[in-house]
Design brief:
The protein has 376 residues and is of the alpha+beta class. The strands form four sheets. Strands 4, 5, 6, 9, 10, 11, 13, 16 and 18 form a nine-stranded mixed sheet that branches. The protein contains seven helices and 18 strands. 50% of the residues are buried. Residues 45-75, 91-115 and 187-197 have low confidence and may be disordered. The protein has a domain at 130-183 and 203-375: q2cbj1_9rhob like domain (Jelly Rolls, Sandwich). The two termini are 34 Å apart. Helix 3 links the parallel strand 4 (130-131) and strand 5. Bound molecules: 2-oxoglutaric acid and fe (ii) ion. Residues 10, 259, 271, 276, 295, 313, 340, 355, 357, 368, 370 line the site of 2-oxoglutaric acid. Residues 10, 259, 271, 276, 295, 313, 340, 355, 357, 368, 370 line the site of 2-oxoglutaric acid (AKG).
Length: 376
């Protein structure tokens, strides 16, 4: 049964909120991470005893990642969901099981006109804006925030060693060869609280690297776990400057999402133009809290040629402070191309920047690890 994307990270959802039966999540971490936001609309769907809405706020900070919000609301019975999928139950430290999830099939409509559009052609990839090697944390944070302020996207050279890239690529590829990725979302709600979804032309397959998945996979994801930690450190590392210069306060982040676009299995695998958190666009969906998208590209170490291999990330260079209302409007702006080459980290605003993954035309799978930081 397709539930569409997880409200938080976009991975395929496994169950719905057991109270309103509407918000869909891939796992307990995302459900918890979303509770402060979801509770504002959850009670509108179903009446519930007041105490079920009382969730203590947890201070934000580096340790305040997705898992830090511990709602007392009635949670989805994640163990039952895992059992349904033939997966092992969570360990005692993971979630408490409360109530079986009874997801309803979403009503599906076609794409709304003017919202989705096919990707355009690759242009020459932009050079790196920031090199991490040889800079201290404050210099990095200042340079990254300056670029985000100026144009909403920043391309960073991570400076990791070749052996590390190889290890990360090998892990992503082994999981791919083992068939561990699942189909990413095929749609998102077209209006708040609605089951009606619109397709968003997304051809990747994903694995949500929640802490339970990381624990279960253990050594198989050692290097990927390191990348996930580095992404977290990077986001928390620019937190203070973001706050000082833009008044944006990052509060928590989603678990890492490992994605793969496989041009061999899905010719021209791509992701059409979209905004990750499109609440400011004409889609009129609720704000899911996401503000900063971080993506680290994982390739086999060979140069990724966007002309030959395709798969470039293309970002519409609109005013970074506000989202264009539609793809058509976004595409009136120049396009900025990023090559999904290893050692490349890209940061952009989740709520204002339209972007797309251009068709993967070569035979190499295109891997990336992404995380989204929430903020207010
Ligand atoms: O992998 C990329 O370059 C971008 C993917 C993307 O836009 C997304 O997952 O929302
Ligand atoms: Fe995106």
């Amino acid at each position: 049964m397709e539930l569409g994307p997880c409200r938080v990270c976009g991975c395929p959802a496994l169950a719905r909120c057991s109270r309103c039966q509407e918000a869909a999540y891939c796992g307990p971490e995302c459900q918890r991470a979303d509770w402060q936001i979801h509770k504002q609309s959850c009670h509108r769907s179903r009446e519930a005893p007041a105490e079920r809405l009382q969730v203590p706020a947890v201070p934000a900070g580096p340790a305040g990642q997705a898992a830090a919000v511990a709602p007392k609301q009635k949670e989805i019975e994640w163990d039952a969901v895992r059992a349904m999928l033939g997966q092992a139950p969570a360990r005692p430290s993971d979630d408490r099981a409360d109530e079986a999830a009874g997801p309803a099939e979403p009503r599906v409509s076609g794409a709304s006109p003017g919202w989705q559009s096919s990707p355009t052609h690759p242009t020459t990839p932009a050079p790196f804006d920031v090199h991490l090697v040889g800079k201290n944390n404050v210099e990095v944070a200042q340079a990254v925030v300056a670029k985000l302020k100026e144009r909403g996207v920043c391309v960073i050279k991570a400076g990791a060693e070749r052996a590390f890239h190889k290890a990360v690529h090998m892990e992503a590829k082994q999981l791919w060869d083992a068939g561990a990725y699942t189909s990413a979302s095929k749609g998102s709600p077209s209006s708040p609280g609605s089951h009606e979804i619109t397709f968003n032309a997304r051809d990747d397959k994903v694995i949500c690297l929640s802490s339970s998945v990381l624990d279960a996979l253990g050594k198989k994801v050692q290097a990927l776990k390191k990348v996930d930690e580095q992404l977290a450190n990077f986001g928390w590392g620019i937190k203070q400057i973001l706050e000082d210069q833009l008044g944006l306060s990052l509060t928590k982040r989603t678990p890492g999402m490992l994605s793969c676009y496989d041009g061999q299995k899905v010719p021209d695998a791509q992701y059409g133009f979209h905004v990750d958190n499109p609440y400011m666009t004409n889609m009129a969906v609720p704000d899911d809290g996401r503000r900063l998208t971080l993506i680290f590209y994982i390739s086999d170490g060979q140069h990724w040629d966007v002309q030959k291999d395709g798969g470039a990330l293309q970002v519409c260079m609109s005013d970074p402070r506000r989202a264009p209302s539609s793809t058509a409007e976004a595409l009136t702006h120049p396009l900025f191309t990023v090559a999904p080459d290893c050692d490349t980290l890209v940061a952009f605003w989740s709520h204002t920047m339209f972007h797309a993954v251009l068709p993967v035309t070569g035979t190499k799978p295109r891997f990336a690890l992404s995380t989204w930081f929430m903020g207010s």
